[in-house]
Amino acid sequence: MFSKKHFITENIPDLTGKVAIVTGGNTGIGYITARELSRKNAHVFIASRNKERGEGAVEKIKKETGNDQVEYLNLDLVNLKNVKKSAENFLSKNLPLHILINNAGIMATPWALTEDGIQDQFGVNHVGHFLFTMTLLSKIEASAPSRIVNVSSTAHNFAPAVGIEFDKINQDAAQSTWQRYGTSKLANILFTESLSKRLEGKEVYVNSIHPGIIIQQKNIFRLQRQRQL
Prior knowledge:
One of its GO terms (molecular function) is oxidoreductase activity. It comes from Funneliformis geosporum. The protein is of the alpha/beta class and 229 residues long. Helix content is 37%, strand content 14%. The protein has a single domain (14-226), classed as 3-Layer(aba) Sandwich (Rossmann fold), CATH 3.40.50. Strands 3-2-1-4-5-6 form a six-stranded parallel beta sheet, with helices on both faces. The radius of gyration is 17 Å and the shape is globular.
């Protein structure tokens, strides 16, 4: 059952002095999220793989909000070395990190592997974000009160009834494309629950969300190799 309570962007408090990272912030849900955080005076980093689109989103948000504290951060979730480097690049800026929104993802893509040999939906939607988050975690803890939001989906119900079948993740014919997607979203939720317990009492709030049914650009359905995120 979905909540009947409504929270609109006008309810977001003033975020002056707060620093946020939004993965996949160059388009769709991520773009709107980054824009509204910026509108509330946060210092926002848009983390995405395509530099041209990422920097384009940065300039557009600056014009729409009048907030010049918007930056691009290169993040390629199909490459774990890049993920680690991206987090380290942020840490080198010696800024706090109050908000991390793990939003980027791919959905129902044809079978493919990441550059590290991981089934792409699981690799991009979960493993990449896991490494990104854990590399940034000490900074997030030091910036408390802070928040981590993992964008999941009710599509976690598409995962096999037994849960995550780790021995089958990299087997092409073992699962349907929607089972693979559901498995990645289930992993988001389980990671959220585990991290929330680990950080209990530290004023770091970890949540997973279902964003609802969103009408947006078709790029979420494009092949991962087209490098849209």
